[in-house]
Amino acid sequence: MTVTGNFANVIHGLNANHLTDQVIQRSKRMILDTLGVGLLGTSTEVYHKVKQYSKIYSSDISSTIWGHLDFRLPPLYAAFVNGVAVHSMDFDDTWHPATHPSGAVLPAVIALSEAFPQKKKISGLDLLLAFNVGIEVQGRLLRFSNEARNIPKRFHPPTVVGTMGSAAACAKLLALDQAKCKNALAIAASYAGAPLANAATQTKPLHIGNAAKHRLEAACLASQDLQGNKQILDMESGMGAFYTDYSPQSLPTLQSYAWLLDQQDVAIKRFPAHLGTHWVADAASSARRKLVESSDHVLPLDKIEKVIVKVPEVKYVNRPNPNSEHEARHSFQFVACSALLDGSMSVQSFASDNIHRPALRELLCKTQLEHPADNKPSFESLYCEVTVVLQDGNTISGRCDTFYGHWRKPLEKEDLEKKFQSNASEVLPPEATEGIIETVYNLEKKSVRSQSGKFQDFLYHCSNSIKDLVQRSLAHESTVVVSLLDP
């Protein structure tokens, strides 16, 4: 059997009984986090631009746009717009080998679920299974290449493996047979890829939006028997086109299937920026604490001669003079200086006033990067050391080997919920955010129904009392949660 055929059999054959408790728990954390960053992302400029663009489309079948109760789009474009929202601030989860796994899958499976006819019943477990199939396919494809284990240099991984994983997730939700699963993967491969040159611009969030849209489209086309290369995962000119050392392998048997999410958790970010900057933030905050303690609890900015930041060589995150929020999110230097000034990073760190404040600009001019030979560009092994050199010759350093939120040091449940609440509160009242948390944590126990093209109960399995919440939320331009409640 070919590797492509093996993948198709596994995608078709996996069922809810294969899901382990740990996979369910980890994937629910990912879903909650992705919903939160997506809700927050509806406030961004890039989100509003793609939302406005998507208004040119109309359809009798429509899906929810997160953040706008009165605006719906065809499923493909709902997946696109919501995917952009998830990645609009680079706040979504990151896996190893490097990719953003959830943002390409969750918007697609939610949009597709809303499009099912009234008679089709989807359980929360169905949704979890499809989501996890999408995550699994991404992880397996990434492990076919040693090159993929490093921080990318040429293309943005979600546009390749994310597109394939999302197609697999949608194929699973559509219950496609093995032949159509092969075609879904083949079609998705022809949508794959986006150059990394667009990192730190408003175009980068489109990568996740397109991955969600294209994978859904691939699965839908496959369901209509559109044909593709049935060995797309086996060939050097197939998936091998993206990796110079691509070496595909068969998946574990269904009788004893081992999920990668069981073995490898994701990193969940505490602030919205490239994952590599999270080591920098913790190292710089550590140096700041030592500096303040040695200077009568005052940060001696006027006595700083230079700041040395030791990180791997990652060219697209080497930005000594960022001028936009997107550039700042991809700047080792900016995060180091911002954390030195403030002691921590947050969503507000990337506001224009903070990016352009004189004290930060002055500190940026004193900051330089160094790339030690032992500091490899891998999210599994990189470290950061920030050294502040004072005018009197003294030095103070802080180092981070594993930041809080990394898969080796995952966020506690309480801190994950605080992140979600903070993000979702930008567009939802407190009652709604608490309802989402409860529903996601109990998703495998929920009956998720699709009625009149509306994915009613995904975020709430609600009673009539929720109607009052809907009415209050209308005044707040409520988001996906409330729109899914409309009975």
What's the short version?
This protein is of the alpha+beta class and 487 residues long. It is built from 19 helices and 9 strands.
How would you describe this structure to a colleague?
Helices cover 44% and strands 9% of the residues. A hairpin with a 4-residue loop joins strand 6 and strand 7 (395-400). The strands form three sheets. A four-stranded mixed sheet has the order 5-4-6-7. It has a three-stranded antiparallel sheet with strand order 3-8-9. A two-stranded antiparallel sheet has the order 1-2. The protein has 487 residues and is an alpha+beta fold. The chain has 19 helices and nine strands. It has helices spanning 3-13, 21-41, 45-54, 75-87, 106-114, 124-142, 161-173, 178-189, 204-223, 260-263, 276-293, 325-329, 332-342, 352-355, 358-365, 413-424, 430-441, 466-474, 480-483; strands at 63-65, 68-73, 121-123, 304-310, 367-370, 384-390, 395-400, 447-451, 454-455. Helix 2 packs parallel to helix 16 and helix 16 packs across helix 17 (430-441). Residues 449-487 have low confidence and may be disordered.
Number of strands: 9
Q: What order do the SSEs take from the amino end to the carboxyl end, as H and E?
A: HHHEEHHEHHHHHHEHHHHEEEHHEEHH
Shape: globular
Which blocks of ≥5 consecutive residues have pLDDT under 50?
Answer: 449-487
Question: What's the story with the biggest beta sheet?
Answer: 4 strands, mixed
| CA-atom Rg in angstroms | 23 Å
Derived structural class: alpha+beta
The residue fraction in helices comes out at 40-55%
Reading side by side through the largest sheet, how are the strands ordered?
Answer: 5-4-6-7
**Mean model confidence by pLDDT:** 88
Total helical elements: 19
Strand-residue fraction?
5-15%
Q: How widely separated are the two ends?
A: 47 Å
